[in-house]
């Protein structure tokens, strides 16, 4: 990918979004840097007039989303790479989880992400080029206790992205799903709410994992700056991956899921094929 591409990155105040925006700017590409609180990203664009703009964007707000895309196109004429990074977490066993909090997470992680795709894709389709990068999680490939509804949002992102890739391939728009394991972002810190009431029966499953995730916050093995470099490398690739795993934990988790699926599929093969009408 030649320098000078235009990136629109959601959720740049912290974590992957911030480090990716910095890395892309250092390459000399142009960036639309967004955050719910635009003041939190002013420092990223300061002194980079003509190369970067800061735009207020809450992906759950349709007017702000439309405005961000309009501002990007007004400033730079195009959007070459959309990175759907904005997202939140929520901790609690399925039974413990509050419906309002779960719906809020789906609005950000799924419907907000989809809104940005709907707004940016027509231009990419017309130009017959572009790249959509959706930040999912290893939790979108395999599930963990205490984050079942978060898993559900990321499974949704993976499914949507796989279908999108099949639909857009004929006209040159590429799709990459980024699936990290534990990285030193704020995902498990202040940005993740949790169920207020714990049920004792889940103490050794959801309860234990909830505390493990909270305790690990800020000490995860993943380096967001290295993740940013990996995402850029994927976007630069002539044939970018549909699934980009990041971190040893992600690799381990994905391989566990593949082995588990194969074992169960093979064990139940006669029952599976026996469900069809006889040939």
Structural features, described:
The mean pLDDT is 94. Strand 1, helix 1 (15-27) and strand 2 (30-35) form a beta-alpha-beta unit. With 279 residues, the protein is α/β, with parallel strands linked by helices. It has helices at 15-27, 42-45, 62-76, 99-127, 148-168, 203-216, 224-236, 248-267, 269-273, and strands spanning 6-9, 30-35, 52-56, 81-84, 90-91, 130-135, 173-180, 193-194, 243-246. It is globular and about 60 Å long.
Summarize the structure.
By secondary structure, this protein is of the alpha/beta class.
Explain the layout of strands and helices.
Layout: E1 6-9, H1 15-27, E2 30-35, H2 42-45, E3 52-56, H3 62-76, E4 81-84, E5 90-91, H4 99-127, E6 130-135, H5 148-168, E7 173-180, E8 193-194, H6 203-216, H7 224-236, E9 243-246, H8 248-267, H9 269-273
Parallel strand pairs: 1-2, 1-4, 2-3, 4-6, 5-8, 6-7, 7-9
CATH topology: Rossmann fold
Helix content: 40-55%
Name the CATH superfamily assignment: NAD(P)-binding Rossmann-like Domain
State the helix count. Answer: 9
**Oligomeric status of the shown chains?**
single chain
Beta-strand percent range: 5-15%
The rounded distance between the terminal residues' Cα atoms is: 51 Å
């Amino acid at each position: 990918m030649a320098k000078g591409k235009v990136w629109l990155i959601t959720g740049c105040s912290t974590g992957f979004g911030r480090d990716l925006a910095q890395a892309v700017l250092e390459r000399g590409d142009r960036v639309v840097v967004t955050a719910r609180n635009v003041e939190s990203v002013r420092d990223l664009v300061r002194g980079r007039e003509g190369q970067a703009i800061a735009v207020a964007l809450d992906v759950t707000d349709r007017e702000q989303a439309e405005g961000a895309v309009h501002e990007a196109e007004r400033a730079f004429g195009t959007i070459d790479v959309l990175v759907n990074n904005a997202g939140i977490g929520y901790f609690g066993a399925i039974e413990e989880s509050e419906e309002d909090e779960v719906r809020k997470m789906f609005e950000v992680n799924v419907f907000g992400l989809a809104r940005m795709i709907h707004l940016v894709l027509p231009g990419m389709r017309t130009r017959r080029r572009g790249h959509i990068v959706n930040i999912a999680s290893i939790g979108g490939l395999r599930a963990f206790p205490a984050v079942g509804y978060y898993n559900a949002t990321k499974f949704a992102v993976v499914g949507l992205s796989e279908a999108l890739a099949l639909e857009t391939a004929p006209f040159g728009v590429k799709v990459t799903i980024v699936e990290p394991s534990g990285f030193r972002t704020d995902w498990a810190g202040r940005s993740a709410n949790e169920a207020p009431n714990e049920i004792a029966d889940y103490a050794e499953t959801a309860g234990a994992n909830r505390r493990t995730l909270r305790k690990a916050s800020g000490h995860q093995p993943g380096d967001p700056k290295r993740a940013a470099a990996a995402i850029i490398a994927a976007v630069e690739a002539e044939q970018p991956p549909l699934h980009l795993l990041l971190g040893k934990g992600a690799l381990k988790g994905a391989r566990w899921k593949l082995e588990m699926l194969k074992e169960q599929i093979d064990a139940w093969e006669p029952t599976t094929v026996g469900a069809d009408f006889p040939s």
